[in-house]
Amino acid sequence: MQRRKILQMALGASAVALVPSVFTPAQAADEFPTRPIRLIVPYGAGGVTDQVARALADAAGRELGQSIVVENKPGVSGTLGATQMVTTEPDGYTLSMAPVVIFRLPHVQKMRYDPLKDLTYVSMIADYNFAVAVKKDAKWQTMQELIADAKADKKGISYGTTGIYGSQHLTISELARVSQSNWTHVPYKGDAEAITALLSGSSDVAVLSNTLLPYVQNGQMRVLATLSEKRAADFPNAPTLKEIGYPVWSNSPFGIVGPANMKPAVVKRLDDAFRNALKDPKFLNVTRQFGMDTNYMTPEQYSAYAKKAFKSEGDIIARLAEAMKNQ
To answer: With pLDDT > 70 as the criterion, what percentage of the chain qualifies?
Structure first.
């Protein structure tokens, strides 16, 4: 009798073991994440975006209870992260930083991703701010003087940026159009190279982010204007282009995206973590250091923004192409 009971119990346990565990999508989302998350940064290590991404990843990782590992993939003007999302499993474990150029480049060349079909928009994070700087001994004391010379000189004022079709390039191109002035764009591989070119006299102007700040503070450079819609806190004496009469400004936000078709519950979990990370003191210290403003948007708001941005960037590229054709 005892042996029969033992045999029955063993058979029952075996039967239970043979029944597969069943998890609903809701349960899987509740458990997310169960392993580290990879965040692609489509720029080189050590740059502004990289440092901001690492501070954000650290803060959001604490919110999620899992580490977020940054992976740098520089190249193709900051679009390699968006490109990789096309072939990535939409489970939330691989994400990418997304600069505004992801909406711009498809209007310039054939890309392997469609920003309106191949991405899930998780959270908008912040805006880059840019400034127009010259060497301390440059003859221009104001932006108005610089524009006046750009109008008079057919060769144009040379200005360095971090790449063709970047926000700095397009903003100065718009300024050239509305002010009927002449500018010669000199794209560099990064901020450091553009700064070196300015200080050595290879270019007249540098249009960069707050990587300029230490050089302004030590007296090597002067900022004539900022490209933001409102005055930048780090350069309070520098007017915006709007202030001096030109309806031109740079809107260069970046956010977090994932592959298309991510589960809504996973998107919400990630968005909650990134939204809370924007309050983290260490993260805010990094954004202040580089003159950035947080610009949070929900997944729904970010998705709506993406549709508008894709259209507006196409309009800007069309105007730039027309201007280049008429030169």
So the answer is: 90
Confidence of residue 1 (pLDDT cuts 50, 70, 90): very low
> 273 and 213 share a domain?
no
Contact assessment for residue 267 and residue 33, using Cβ atoms and an 8 Å cutoff: no
pTM: 0.80
Instruction: Report the range of poorest mean pLDDT among 58-62, 133-137, 316-320.
Output: 316-320
The last residue of a domain, from among 249, 276, 309: 249
27-31's contacts with Cβ under 8 Å and 24+ in sequence apart are 28/263, 29/263, 29/265, 29/266, 29/269, 30/265
Amino acid type, 135:
K
Q: 270: domain range? A: 35-128+252-319
Give the CATH number for residue 305.
3.40.190.150
Is the Cβ–Cβ distance between 239 and 132 less than 8 Å? no
Task: Give the CB-side neighbour count of residue 154, counting CA atoms within 13 A.
Answer: 1
Residue 91 has pLDDT above 60, yes or no: yes
Q: What is the phi/psi pair of residue 222, to 5°?
A: -130, 140
* 206 in a structural domain: yes
- Half-sphere exposure in the Cβ direction for 127 (13 Å, CA): 15
Q: Is the pLDDT of residue 274 over 70?
A: yes
pLDDT computed for residue 154 by the predictor:
87
Question: 19: pLDDT confidence band, cut at 50, 70 and 90?
Answer: very low
- 147 with 245, same domain: the answer is yes
In CATH, what number is assigned to the domain containing residue 184?
3.40.190.10
How open is the CA angle 6-12-15, to the nearest 5 degrees? Answer: 145
Cβ pair 34, 7 in contact under 8 A: no
Last residue of a domain, one of 249, 265, 280: 249
pLDDT at 26 > cutoff 60: no
E strand intervals along the chain: 37-41, 68-72, 94-99, 119-128, 131-135, 157-161, 183-187, 205-208, 221-226, 252-259, 293-297
Rounded CA separation 249/172 (Å): 9
